[in-house]
């Protein structure tokens, strides 16, 4: 019996360093981005829904909705569409991880000497990149239908804020994806979480127009806070913008700090 | 040496054992007891086969040994590293090809292997070179830059095995590596495994086929309902069974059933009806074959085909457990 190949090379180090976590994350992110580029249909379909919403609310419902912000309803609408779009993008995180699980890829990754959080971090980073692309596209569509942000810096700050929030949220949906038996169920599990957050919000209509019991939720729930902050930064007309920004950042930080460990725990202990 | 005989002996033992499992127990949520105290010892540089029917607990054992699953009880070590306490060390020295090919459909074969290489801490260039080498070795060079989506089942399996070898692991786990492969792919995979073992790799594989275990494995453990029910070399297991099988084909299941009734009046051998095939277990070297044909002839029944076979895993199972390999 030969022992030559049996001795582990000394180059193998067992404990992942922070640098290695970053490297592994980038390798996984690249893998997911290759898939996004290779199946452009996925990106296309995730953009169709927000574009329909823009057209629907701009031209069908918009006339009946009274808002007081500068620039008319289209300027009220677009910040809501941006936030809704990236929030729904988080479903992609859940579906993608459920698919990886179904195909046995997660098992393989778990048997490799790689950083434990990298599979999830790589996925969420890739989804962040996808959100950047979708946001750029929606900006173009918004411009075409008359959306005019009041200044470029405010717009950029708002985009950063909504990407940050979406990133934190995607960790929660990573946990959902890792809890689902398959990708269809992951999708079905995601929508009941997202619908109240995105529709019982200030996205399309002013919260004041809702019944009292719903107002209480719609006004203070995290997605409304982010929409108000984004709307204030993009087009103005929102009182106490900095307050909304601070609360939004706090929600994002809170989500990340709670949901990321939860997702990593699901990843490690999934049987 | 004279002063510390016990210690010397212990070290020798450790050095020769690659995989060691002691009383592994695993109960899944919902109360399924997948492993009910499994102990194994795999010598370095050898091929060990875990045989068992569907649901026996093979995959669960492999998942525990590869740190994917924690056992509820018992312990296991790979090259001396405890799978629960030192999972990172274990992951650095093992390769795993799971029951279903775990490759990314959207990536090309090359991209898949390069990714695994990078995750095993190879630099991008080295990972690429290694990937290209493995694709060559597994006869996938032509498909290297095609998305895996376009691969056949056999090609995926080969790629999956290549992925397990990227890091040149000294210990390799293969969960049903040839299930669902055509005979040609199967035998070429066998050759690869034999080459690896020739190079000093320790292999633990699971299989449902006795033929495969026979060909590849130095030792086998048969498991059923989460327990090891027999252990030894393939030759030992078959010798323990001491029986061959006579298969009699009939035109219809009804006719086969009639033949069984006729035969059971005169023969004591255990019989098993499988559609229109009657399987008769016979003692090696007994006169039962001739006897069975004479009885059928007397009853004017002519089988449309017949064969005497070496015992299959089914027969080993039937003998060891009283139920077939495809029943629970
Ligand atoms: N993740 C799981 N959750 C619940 N039960 C499981 C799980 N994995 C396996 N089992 C059950 O454990 C038993 C052993 O399964 P497994 O180890 O996959 O067997 P084998 O690989 O030999 O076919 C089966 O009854 C199976 O249904
Ligand atoms: Mg199995």
Report on the structure:
The complex is a heterodimer of chains A (271) and B (328). By secondary structure, chain A is mostly helical. Chain A has one domain (18-270). In chain A, 75% of the residues lie in helices and 0% in strands. The longest helix of chain A is centred in the first third of the chain and has 30 residues, at 73-102. Chain A is elongated and about 55 Å long. The two termini of chain A are 36 Å apart. Residues 1-12 of chain A have low confidence and may be disordered. By secondary structure, chain B is of the alpha/beta class. Chain B folds into 2 domains: 12-238, Rossmann fold (3-Layer(aba) Sandwich), CATH 3.40.50.300; 243-310, Alpha-Beta Plaits (2-Layer Sandwich). Chain B contains 12 helices and 14 strands. A 6-stranded mixed beta sheet of chain B has the order 6-7-8-3-9-10, sandwiched between helices. A 4-stranded antiparallel beta sheet of chain B has the order 2-1-4-5. Chain B has a 4-stranded antiparallel beta sheet with strand order 12-13-11-14. Chain B is globular, with a radius of gyration of 23 Å. Chain B starts with a helix and ends in a 7-residue tail after the last helix. Residues 1-11 of chain B have low confidence and may be disordered. At the A-B interface, helix 1 and helix 4 of A face helix 3 and helix 4 of B. The site of magnesium ion (MG) has 5 residues of chain B, from helix 2.
Summary tags:
heterodimer, A: 271 residues, mainly alpha, 10 helices, 75% helix, 0% strand, disordered N terminus, B: 328 residues, alpha/beta, Rossmann fold, Alpha-Beta Plaits, 2 domains, six-stranded mixed β-sheet, four-stranded antiparallel β-sheet, 12 helices, 39% helix, binds adenosine-5'-diphosphate, binds magnesium ion
